[in-house]
Amino acid sequence: MRHLLKLAGMRESEARQILDLAKKAKKMRGKKIVGKGALAGQIWALIFTKASTRTRVSFEVAIRELGGVPSFLSAAEIQLGRGELVRDTARVMGRMVHGAVIRTFAQSDVEEFAEYAQIPTINALTDDEHPCQILSDIFTIEEKLGSIRGKRIAFIGDAACNVPRSWGEAAEIFGFQFVCGAPKEFRPMSIGGNVSWTEDPMEAAAGADVLYSDVWVSMGKEFEAAEREKIFAPYQINRKLVSQAKKGALVLHCLPAYRGKEITDEILEERAKDIFDQAENRLHTQKGILQWIVAKPLKGKK
To answer: Which domains, ranges and CATH numbers included, belong to the chain?
Structure first.
């Protein structure tokens, strides 16, 4: 049985299978059923503790277009929101549905769910990891720039959160350089190998093939908003910073974007085509992930 809980430990050949499936899904969308109904007869639970737009819509559409039925469950609507243990919810879900997509706070909750539910489980975001986003971003980069191997990806902003952590794991898998321009209080959790850090955002952007940003205030950190905005003010993707990157470099943002903060309105609008291609590619990559997950026979129901 396969899960996608984080990128660490994944082989490049496995990641490439997902990207190849995503490419086929994008090419064939609207022409015929992708994956020959890979999820036909299956019901997948979407258990979301955190708010979502792109992740929820892309997974719901992907499951339906692969022949399955999504069942969306917010924490407020199920007993998890009233204190039921993750393992108990997992044991019930494992008897009723064929797979689960989970978006929540603690990475340990996703891992515990997968252990006790004994059904394929996908991490749709935790405070520590965001593997689906990064696989989709790599799909976008390779679609526009060719192989990511050997490229320089510069992340500007809060490098101590889930997106840069998963980027760092991907750098080891795919063989590219991941450099973070971030304040010392928000530097990457792991530095070394293909991951580096500088406190100077201009140095991070110099010669980059891709400039990447995310919100300065992650979900659950709203009480720190005023202080974070002061700290991150020099770490904005703007005209001056873009000028440091390679000619033709991509500017990407995993959205939602707060214009005038982590990225200027001018740059976002100028690069909107790439950024919203990036958002669309979440759908195609989710299809790739789902098809890869179920490529091996599912364990029999209890």
So the answer is: 12-130+282-293 (3.40.50.1370), 133-280 (3.40.50.1370)
